[in-house]
Amino acid sequence: MSMEIEAIKDPGLPAHVHRAADTDPKAAKKAERQVAILFLLSALGTILLISTFFFISEDTFIYLPVLGNTNAYQLFLGLGLAASLFFIGMGAIQWARTLMPDEEVVAERHEFRSPDEDRADFVATVKDRAGQAGLGRRSLIKRSLGLSLGLVGISPLLLLRDLGPLPKDDLTKTSWKAGTRLVTDPGDRPIRPEDLEVGAVAQTLPELASGEKRTLNNIGKDAVLLIRLRPEEFNLDAERLSWTHEGIIAFSKICSHMGCAVALYEQQTKHLLCPCHQSTFDVTRAAKVIFGPAARPLPQLAITIDADGYLVAKAPFTEPVGPSFWERSS
Amino acid sequence: MTARERIAGNVASYVDDRTGAAKWMKKNLTKVFPDHWSFMLGEIALYSFIILLLSGTFLTFWFDPSQREVVYEGGYAPLEGLKMSAAYASTLHISFEVRGGLLMRQIHHWAALIFMAAIVVHLLRVYFTGAFRKPREFNWIIGVGLLTLGIVEGFLGYSLPDDLLSGTGIRIAEAIIQALPLVGSYLAFFAFGGAFPGESFIPRIYTVHVLLLPGIFLALITVHLMLVWYQKHTQYPGPGRTEKNVVGYPLMPVYMAKAGGFFFIVFGITAFLGAVASINPIWLYGPYTPGQISAGSQPDWYMGWLDGLVRMSPPLETHAFGHTISWNILIPGLIVPGILFTGMALYPFIESWVTGDKREHHLLDRPRNAPNRTALGVMSLTFMIVALLNGGNDIIATNFHLTINQIMWFSRIAIFVLPPIAFIVTKRLCLSLQRADRDLVLHGRETGRLLRMPSGEFVEVHEPISPEKAWLLTQHEQNPPLALEEVDSRGVRRPGVIKNKIRARISKANAEAVPKVSVEDLKEIEHH
What we know:
- The structure holds two protein chains of two kinds.
- By secondary structure, chain A is an alpha+beta fold.
- Chain A has helices at residues 20-23, 25-55, 72-98, 116-133, 139-152, 154-159, 216-222, 238-242; strands at residues 61-64, 68-71, 105-108, 182-184, 201-206, 224-228, 248-252, 264-266, 271-273, 280-282, 288-291, 300-301, 303-305, 311-313.
- Among the domains of chain A are: 20-98; 182-313, Rieske [2Fe-2S] iron-sulphur domain (Rieske Iron-sulfur Protein), CATH 2.102.10.
- Chain A has eight helices and 14 strands.
- Chain A has a five-stranded antiparallel sheet. In chain A, strands 8-9-10-11 form a four-stranded antiparallel sheet, with no helix packed on it.
- In chain A, helix 2 packs antiparallel against helix 3.
- The longest helix of chain A has 31 residues, at 25-55.
- Chain A starts with 19 loop residues before the first helix and ends in a 17-residue tail after the last strand.
- In chain B, helix 5 packs across helix 10 (251-276).
- The N and C termini of chain B lie far apart (69 Å).
- The interface between A and B is large, with 93 and 120 residues.
- Chain B: GO terms for molecular function: electron transfer activity; metal ion binding; oxidoreductase activity.
């Protein structure tokens, strides 16, 4: 505080003003009644809860303004519980506000800092005891203890090894092979080109060999989106164009950004949009990223038809699907 | 002595014989707590935590944290016969067959949202009033830790039901782990017990959600409260309130009744929300499968800013030497939040370095009297709000008929432009408020009464403000900036010139203020 300028003085705590209930027994009686009423409302809340539990069936629906069609059982159970708790609180606070002493009390703060001699004593004690243990002198003990403590830290890391397998090529391989049929998801039906009209989208998965079981892990890598355009609408190089079949193009459905399912297809603009972070991919240009945080196009799956006329993969994916990882090379 | 008093006395002596607690209790039952509405914010967080423990325990009796595939045969017809995880099926069971189960689920989720909101608002109160200053820096750091753990705990909690929405959230978390350079794919495979989604993750995060993190919460909250108790609460400035005292109401009975009552009110309101406001209706989302998603996928609000940052990130990825670094994930998902939270945790030390103030503070600041701090707070808040809004850009786009691209570009620019503007505006506002305080003390309150002078002139009558008010408006300190000389008394340049220059510069900006009214100023006015 700048000392040259005299500051305005602290007038001190204002005089205490009594409440009506402090001086008027009638007001006090009224306050007491108010508190009691609040506590009784809480009791009514519990009664509402109990009656709901026993007398309202769980599938009763009632229509209420704002809430709409509401399950009466859940609603009244909750309202009963809410009232039983809320009014206990209101009662207690009304009690404190009207009838308990409302005169402010002043307490002094104590200093946290220990007196200087205690601090000095503390340092001396630590030094003395550490000296007794020979912590400073016996460097062999100190170093070997340091070594063993450091090594002990390794064991939990090692013991946690079986949390999971090593990634190996799991992030880079999918179930798609040359000749794998594309089947609908759900339904597992093979698809002919003529099943898809121009503008249509289909969710597909690789066909399972008999006896195989599809896991969520498979779906997480194998999900493929089929989109049919007019062949002239594509804006692809010759190689990528050869990966399409009669205007049908196939992309991994797993977003190249963070792995969400890229499920929103805008027929007018021919854009695919990921609902998680709004990365937008242009279907006509091999799912090139045209907006949002994704840095890579969706991997394209080369497709053709087999002897029976069903859509099949021409080759496996040429790059890993899904979000990036350190070992990914492109 | 009545019989009741005798029994109570006997119980008390029985306990005291064995613990010696009477002395401590006697002292602490009369402990004084200052009264202010903003001191209830931390209480709301504490009470929500208790509600979370109670409702969460209820849910564990039926929840089956397993990703084993089951076929649903419960009471909810639209999902009948569908394959799903046991976790999702048991959450449906709690929602539809366990009596009060849906209510408890909703209370649990609402309590989690209120818990996080209360922590954030409590943190803002502590920040803007300077309550984190010495000796309360430890409690500030514990608070930042609780906020961080709260975000993680909340995320794990809403991930447990394994519905389509929460599974998508886990997918994103996995992508963040996987994006870490060097160790990412290994860590992801260890966390998930193999490839995503696997069958291990939900059982594992269940242990973390119901045992590990609540245990850490309990420990940290205990220390947090013990420090508040021991250091005594801060108080707002005002007549009779000094750095050396604490003015308020005694623990017994007033504070006990108020705080205890307030617990029931918070519980009651949470139960009310659980009864009338549907939250996270997982049966509408369906079971998780990585091939599907619902439009408008949103995390809970306390994760929304993080999602918003990820959404607005530019598509940056480095491919070199056969490796990939995803800056579009690492920067918004880890680096920026890391800087923000570290900066927040260290703020008390940064401020004390700038001001050179190493004294204890128990009287709170009025935010306007610390313009730089207030402005920095509003600036950070603006950053967070832009990020949070962008986290809901799809929802905003559909509701306000905008395109997502417009909102995204707005956010990408606003996240850099708006925070500095917020800083400048807030600082100017604080200084204006200081000027208004000064005017009020010097010239009194405008009464709105007009007087016509004999000369025909109209004047408004000003009424002097009360001595209490005048004290409140002038009690704060106004310290000069640090004097950091470049050369010492013997003309030798000090080490760390650049550091000192920066420090002096910030210190100067920090000390900017409208001079408060002194007695001399008032005397001068009287002379006129």
